[in-house]
Amino acid sequence: MYIATSRGADAAADVPKSGVKRAVTGNVVALGLVSLVTDISSEMVTAVLPLYLVLGLGLSPLQFGVLDGLYSGVTAVVRLVGGHVADRWQKLKAVACFGYGLSALGKIGLMLAGSSTVAIGAVLAADRTGKGVRTAPRDALITLSSDPEHLGRAFGVHRAMDTFGAFLGPLVAMAVLWLSLGSYDSVFFTSFCIAAIGVIILVVLVKDHQPKPRAERPKVSLRETAGLIRQASFRRICVWAALLGLVTLSDSFLYLVLQRRWELGAVFFPLLPLGTAGVYLLLAVPFGRLSDRIGRWKVFLGGHVALVVALLALLGPVDGGILAVLALVLHGVFYAATDGVLMAAAGPLLPEHQRASGLALVQTGQATTRMLASVLFGLAWTTWDLHAAVLVAAGALAVVVVAAAVLRPLRTYA
Asked: What average pLDDT is seen over the chain?
């Protein structure tokens, strides 16, 4: 088992003269600011996309499931590419910057795609390619800028800032829709402008990890990256993250289910993610600190239990605001307990020079199975009905959570 012992020059610079190390370094905060601005941009699009595709373009649930799966899962292969290139050339910041820039350009592509489903799918694939390329190098920078014992808190702070952007994004989208009299193109253009600001912040404020001199760097090959799977603890966390992703309902489908049950108007649909984002924002740091204390895998599985209860709440006998609020709160708990916590659990298991590649392996397995999950749920909704599809999703998730709890994959920092 590999445990990182060096945080790099950028992290060392965050040690005060008193010798007391900061739990959250300046580089983590800078990366959080980039994610905050970028998430305002991305969540503007995410907030209106389900209605734009289902109500605006008239796609069926199955067609939307395919596009939603593409939106969530196209990052699978490019995560590996981004992580490997970043480790190979020791250019974590440069690779992350390319990914952020590509996603920003994708917002312009949505304006040009018109009503063509194929063109929209291609643009979404490009947008998610940018996200896939940047995610592993960014998370590797967080782990290399933090001490292993404080990783839960560091990721909690980063995800809290990221989620604050996610909280603001739907509000901005709703304001733009209102001011533009329902123009989706106005939302897409505003989203592009904000994303461009995020790229500028990354270039100016974020410090790259300072690698060892070229002669001392281990060469990272694809075979060595694949060889990380031979490590038992890391292999188990990859497998369970993928299995749990296969039975996880996507955000877009959860919001569509709520919209159907609550009969929410199109103008107010972008407000639904605010419930998730608000809870996530409040709990990301406390859950990160909790995971450092009691075990990251316990907190991670607890988040999936919250999602099971949220799905059951969607099946409640009474329609209305109470069930909607309960489902959104539990959805926020799910993200606060799983998103950054999974990366904090996996990071210390990886050698420093393969940190981006290893985290990309975890993310790739999860992204691939979540893509399949969206397609399967869309198929179930189309073939059966909404109630049956949600019930099967909740039951399958509960079974996998119980199995993962019994077969605990981690022994260190877990």
From this structure: 82
Contact criterion met (CB below 8 Å) for 38 and 130: no
Query: What CA–CA distance (Å, rounded) separates 90 from 14?
Result: 21
pTM of the model: 0.78
Burial class of residue 173, CB neighbours in 10 A (0-12, 13-18, 19+): buried
pLDDT band at residue 330 under the 50/70/90 scheme: very high
How far apart CA 121 and CA 222 sit, in angstroms, is: 29
Alpha-carbon Rg of the chain, whole angstroms?
20
Half-sphere exposure of 313 (CA within 13 A, CB side): 21
Kindly state the DSSP code that residue 329 receives in the 8-state scheme: H
Quote the Cα angle for 81-83-87, to 5°: 115
Instruction: Supply 116's token pair.
Output: 């063509």
pLDDT at 165 over 80: yes
Q: Are 42 and 169 in contact (CB under 8 A)?
A: yes
Rounded CA gap, 412 and 181, in Å? 54
Which two tokens mark 38?
């970028």
* pLDDT band for position 1 (cuts 50, 70, 90): very low
pLDDT of residue 45: 86
